[in-house]
């Protein structure tokens, strides 16, 4: 007779038992490697279901575990820069199941958000804010004597922004008790981690070294020359094996670089730094996409991924419409072939703005300034002063950061700069931090600016050429994704500045003036209501003649994918009032609120900017006039 083999008891994954960092801290250090594996596997599974930011989160799994293990969050503050690296943080802070609906309508945000969780200490989406925010929290802790700790986790790309160094400089001046962690995942700053640098990093982070350092300061305090000699000797020793002298000069105690995937090393180093006084700087080396070979090999391509869909049905044709950024990418290459004055500038958006081909074909005229939007605009102004024709490829929401430079350095001097403004309007799953819904408002109030909004792909190409030929500052704002599928002419044609085009003449007395992307939804509404439709094309200068020709309309409707307040519709009303023209007006656009993430079409329906929403709003307005 065979001996009965007992049934193995199912092993509950460690991750399934974590609903807060307090649960994480109950585990022994020996259990953390298993938890790290499970966390990385869950990220692979969940992002495959939903799509979203991918590579950066995989790279900081060990660091995230170490931070929540050592610090008493949420009382202690962890600020994640940009936020695309915060998926593991969300999983460990009670949102594991919610991650399966991340970036979807009514689901959690793809970025840290204060309203979403007490563990999200600072809302982010734009780069390079973490150090300043964490410094503010450290100074608040000092003011109220709470003993609370503050940590900023910033990626190496975000360190290229000036405001990161402004915050570092201020933190050093204040001698703030805070820790800045540089997540170096592109090797853009450091040398490769070697045995010697890792060895010294462990020494410099140790309590023994810190006590010797402080003791030496006391001994030599009465001998300024000896104290300065000791300080310089320490700096030179660090400088031989680490890239940290710059941070030391800013007033930080630099530690690193260390392996960001060595959990034992991370725990020891962070624990040693946790109670140090003054500004501390920890440099960790990580691998973007760690644990998933395709992402490790292509960190840019796997920065974010779409939802993994089932294999397509054989022989089923898929849409190959060009995106608006592709229209721009082709146009700028076509012009560069003919005009050697053209130069392209981008603040770290080569792939997103589709400047890949341009960078390869015209490398001497391609300038990626890293995440430095202010510098990008002033650089363009300087180039324009000496005969170059710069084209600044920038997202609408990122141009907000360079508003002063746009006014002071470009428009005030009436310099010949073209702004190709991508991601204008609602941007779907990326949500309000990335929505380019204010550019029409903030651009049209600037003297000397020409502002255009294309309704389709061919109009986009024509407007880019028009803005390029225009002698002065001009902007073309176009949306994310594809257009209605209008065929694109290869010729480099321009359109008359400030001239609209009428797409439909109706008999109902309703006149719709549309600006940019909503035009084809407005066209459907116009056909249903037998209304006239004018594709306005220009927000500035406005086609005043087109408005005058319709001053006796039964109802004048403006439609834009921009904030209603101060937008294109406001420009129309200002013109009507200035000319004592009185007629019923309806402005359709985005209300005075931040629109939460969802797919683009769902967002349009929510705000009433799809065709049915436009129809409903016009009917409702007409009802008040009868």
Question: How would you characterize this protein structure?
Answer:
The chain has 626 residues and is α/β, with parallel strands linked by helices. It is 41% helix and 15% strand. The strands form 4 sheets. A 7-stranded mixed sheet has the order 9-8-10-11-13-12-17, with helices on both faces. It has a 5-stranded parallel sheet with strand order 2-3-4-6-5, with helices on both faces. A 5-stranded mixed sheet has the order 14-16-15-18-19, sandwiched between helices. Helix 14 (324-338) packs parallel to helix 20 and helix 21 packs across helix 25 (611-625). The longest helix has 19 residues, at 32-50. It is globular. The N and C termini lie far apart (94 Å). 47% of the residues are buried. Mean pLDDT is 87; it is low at 1-10, 187-194 and 311-318.
List the helices and strands and how they pair.
Elements: H1 21-25, H2 32-50, E1 52-53, H3 55-59, H4 61-70, E2 77-80, H5 87-92, H6 130-144, E3 150-155, H7 162-174, E4 178-184, H8 195-205, H9 207-220, H10 224-241, H11 245-249, E5 253-259, H12 263-274, E6 279-285, H13 293-297, E7 304-305, H14 324-338, E8 342-346, H15 356-361, E9 366-368, H16 373-385, E10 389-395, H17 396-399, H18 403-411, E11 418-422, H19 439-444, E12 450-452, H20 457-469, E13 474-477, E14 501-504, E15 510-515, H21 519-529, E16 532-535, E17 538-540, H22 544-548, E18 555-563, H23 568-578, E19 585-590, H24 600-607, H25 611-625
Parallel strand pairs: 2-3, 3-4, 4-6, 5-6, 8-9, 8-10, 10-11, 11-13, 12-13, 15-16, 15-18, 18-19
Antiparallel strand pairs: 1-7, 12-17, 14-16
